[in-house]
Write a structure and sequence with these properties.
It contains 15 helices and 15 strands. The protein is an alpha/beta fold and 377 residues long. It has a 7-stranded parallel β-sheet, sandwiched between helices.
Length: 377
């Protein structure tokens, strides 16, 4: 059995399914090394005890600087003393302890993998030099997306050492929830709208300035200027919630604009996303795309790929969603209108295409098959 140490930042709850598969593997013995989620917007943590795999866990102490993880106290000692065959490190050069862990492992002839974003494509001179130096310490890379792989191939990284493993959420439970959600009437789920039969455009996630929810709400306001044509559902909370309500929520918009608030209840999220018609993230989209598409809802986001998260690749323009010009309310308005006005628009066909994207690629089963193929060589 191969001994694998996986050094990462935190244990987010959405990784529960894939990590549980790792921990129960018959040929790979995983140890998960991570710290607390302080400084990461309090992302809900994975409960290892409930999954009965707490024996695979080693906790270290995270040190943050300006909300960015820079060091993990205890990780260096573990790399020095533990007998391991493979080390998988978070592919983030800002975690300074990872540089040293990679060097220690190479001196011990332990194979080093990075699991991360790779390159964004807009690195300046200094950042590019640092990122090249950091990424060259790894023997091979697990990447979230194909764009990062293409960039690295262009930077002379060997293609055979670059493995796209995509990303996933709590797929198995969500697939069951999406079946149940379809059985609930749309009007019951979306009871807060005056006319629930209008197309429902949603956003789910933290309401931060970088997500530019104001662009979405400005677009909805313009599209509904003459008469209500679209509903808008905002699911989430965050630093921008108050200002967004003050700016956009009034007597005229209450019929078609609803701030649901934060929701950690996946049963509720399943119903809301299943009965929405389009998820729009005016900033980068990330795992929001996978969350929405798991429930059959297409996604739209900005077209500046250097600012995107790798999950944007789940959006096939015109098929599982669309892209619009960054920070451009007018273009977002026309894109939304065109999406719903297209002669071939069929909500159930779109739902099926979204399901197919997640079922084929963005799920733990697909990820595990790729990891096994690489790690068991």
């Amino acid at each position: 059995m191969k001994e694998i140490c996986y050094f990462t930042n935190i244990a987010p709850h959405y990784r529960e399914e894939i990590w549980t598969e790792f921990a129960r593997h018959s040929q790979l013995n995983f140890t998960f090394v991570f710290g607390d989620n302080r400084g990461t917007n309090k992302i809900k943590s994975f409960d290892f005890k409930s999954a009965h795999i707490e024996k695979n866990v080693v906790k270290v102490r995270n040190i943050f600087f300006r909300k960015a993880l820079i060091w993990q106290v205890g990780a260096i000692g573990l790399a020095l003393t533990r007998k391991i065959d493979i080390a998988i490190l978070l592919g983030d050069m800002h975690v300074l302890s990872n540089w040293l862990i990679a060097i220690i492992c190479k001196l011990k002839k332990v194979k080093v993998f990075y699991w991360g974003h790779g390159f964004s494509g807009d690195e300046g001179f200094i950042k590019m030099k640092l990122r090249m130096a950091f990424n060259n310490l790894a023997d091979e890379h697990f990447l979230y997306g194909n764009r990062a792989r293409d960039i690295m191939v262009g930077l002379n990284f060997k293609p055979s050492r670059l493995h796209v493993v995509y990303n996933s959420l709590l797929y198995s439970s969500q697939v069951k929830l999406r079946v149940k959600a379809l059985e609930i009437p749309r009007e019951k789920t979306m009871h807060f709208f005056k006319n629930a039969n209008l197309p429902i455009i949603t956003f789910i996630g933290r309401l931060t300035r970088s997500k530019r929810i104001d662009i979405l709400l400005s677009a909805i306001q313009q599209l509904n200027a003459i008469k209500p044509s679209y509903n808008c559902l905002i699911i989430g909370s965050g630093s921008e919630l108050g200002s967004l309500k003050n700016q956009f929520l009034n007597a005229q918009t209450r019929d078609f604009l609803h701030f649901y608030g934060k929701s950690y209840d996946e049963n509720e999220n399943a119903k809301l996303l299943t009965h929405a018609d389009l998820c729009v993230s005016p900033g980068n989209i990330g795992l929001t795309a996978i969350h929405a598409m798991t429930y059959g809802t297409p996604c739209a986001t900005l077209d500046n790929l250097c600012r995107q998260m790798p999950e944007f690749e789940a959006i096939v323009d015109g098929t599982t969603g669309f892209f619009f010009k960054e920070n451009n309310v007018v273009h977002l308005c026309s894109s939304i209108s065109n999406w719903f006005d297209q002669s071939s628009y069929n909500r159930e066909q779109i739902r099926t295409r979204c399901y197919a994207m997640v079922d084929k690629v963005y799920n733990p089963n697909h990820q595990l098959a790729i990891f096994e193929n690489v790690l068991l060589r």
